[in-house]
Amino acid sequence: MALSGDLWTELPAERRIFCSVLLFSWAVYLWEAFLAHRQRRVYRTTTHVPQELGQIMDSETFEKSRLYQLDKSTFSFWSGLYSEVEGTMILLCGGIPFLWKLSGQISGRAGFGPEYEIVQSLVFLLLATLFSAVTGLPWSLYNTFVIEEKHGFNQQVLVTIYADYIAPLFDKFIPLPEGELKQQIETMAKSIDFPLTKVYVVEGSKRSSHSNAYFYGFFKNKRIVLFDTLLEDYSALNKEPAEGEDGENEETKSKTKNKKQGCKNEEVLAVLGHELGHWKLGHTIKNIIISQMNSFLCFFLFAVLIGQKELFAAFGFYDTQPTLIGLMIIFQFIFSPYNEVLSFCLTVLSRRFEFQADAFAKELGKAKDLYSALIKLNKDNLGFPVSDWIFSMWHYSHPPLLERLQALKDAKQE
Ligand SMILES: [Zn+2]
C-alpha cells in the first residue's frame, strides 16, 4: 500500500490528473450500470399491476410497457458500455490533441494561421460533432427501427419537441370565468396569503401533461394558470361537436359524465394546493438562489483553473492552451465529480420539495382529493410504474407516482 502511494505521488501532476479523470469516469459508469442492473431486475420480476393502480392500468398495458422497458434497458447497457469504452480510447490515444491539430491544418489550408484560434476552434467543434454523429448513428438507428418498431412505440421526437416547445408559444390564455371554481381558488389563495391577481386557463393545450397548473409573476402580482386538460368542464375531450353550444343543461352533463376526463373542482384545488405549497414554502426562491450560486462558483473556479498548465498537459496540450479546450477540460472532466454530487443533491432536494408540497396540500385538508387527482392525471402517461428504490433515488427528480400515493395514504390514515 505504501509502495503504491509512493508511486502515485511520484507521478507528474498531469499524469495524476489524467488517471483521476479516467478512474472517476469509470466509477460513475459502473455505479450507473449497477443501478440499471437493479432496475432491470425490477422489470423482470414485477409481473403484476400494483394494487393502487389496478383501476387505471390493465395488465395488458402493464405487460407491454414492462417488455418495452426491459428491451430498452438491455439496449442502453450495450450502448452505454460502447460509449464508455469509446471515450476511454479517445482519451488514451490522444484523440483530443489529434483533432485539434487536424483542425489547425484545415483552417491553415483555408488561409487562417495559428493566430486565428477562433477559426480553429470552430473547425474543431464541427469535426467533433461530425464524429459523434457518425459513431452514434448506428445506435440510434437500431433504437428507432428495431426496438421501437418491435414494441410499436414511437418516440416521435419532432412531435414531442412541437408539443413541449413550439405549441405553448401559441397557447391561448383566457381568464377563468366567474363561478364556483374561481371563488374557491380565490378563497384558498387568500387563506394562505397568496397575492393572487388573476386566474387563467390555457385553452386547447396539446402538451403531454407535464404540467397541469403553475403560477407566475413577481411580488404582489401573481397569476395562476390552469391547463384546460386539468379541468373537467373545460377539457376539449369532453366537448361534443354536436352540442358545442354554451347552454349545456344538467341533463346532457350527467349523460356524458362517465366519459368525462379531467378533475373535479375539489381535485383541481388539491393540485393547486400542491403548487401553492411550492410558493408558500419558498421552493421557487430557493431554487433560484441555488442555481445563481452554482453559476457563480463554476465561473469562479473556471477563472482559477484556466491558468493551470498541468490541466492542459494532462490531456496532451503541452505548449498551447486554447480556450475552447480549456472549457472542455474543466467543465466536462474536472468538474465531473462536482457535477455528479451537485446533481444528486438537487435530485434529493427536488424530491423533498415535491413531498413537502404534497404535505402542504394535505394540511389544507386535500389529501384525499390530491390522491384521486394524481391517479387521474397520470393515467395517460404512466409508463412503467414500479422502480427500484436506489435507481429511483438517483435518477428521478420527481418522486414516482406510487411513492407519492403511499405518502398521501400514510397522511390520510393519520
Ligand atoms: Zn410540485
From TrEMBL:
Proteolytically removes the C-terminal three residues of farnesylated proteins. Pfam families: Peptidase_M48, Peptidase_M48_N. The chain crosses the membrane at residues 15-35, 75-98, 118-142, 296-318, 324-349. It is found in: Endoplasmic reticulum membrane. Residues 39-166 form the CAAX prenyl protease 1 N-terminal domain. Belongs to the peptidase M48A family. It is an enzyme of class 3 (hydrolase). Gene3D superfamilies: Metalloproteases ('zincins'), catalytic domain (3.30.2010.10). The gene is ZMPSTE24. Keywords: Endoplasmic reticulum, Hydrolase, Membrane, Metal-binding, Metalloprotease, Protease, Transmembrane, Transmembrane helix, Zinc. One of its GO terms (molecular function) is metalloendopeptidase activity. Binds 1 zinc ion per subunit. It comes from the Eukaryota. This is CAAX prenyl protease.
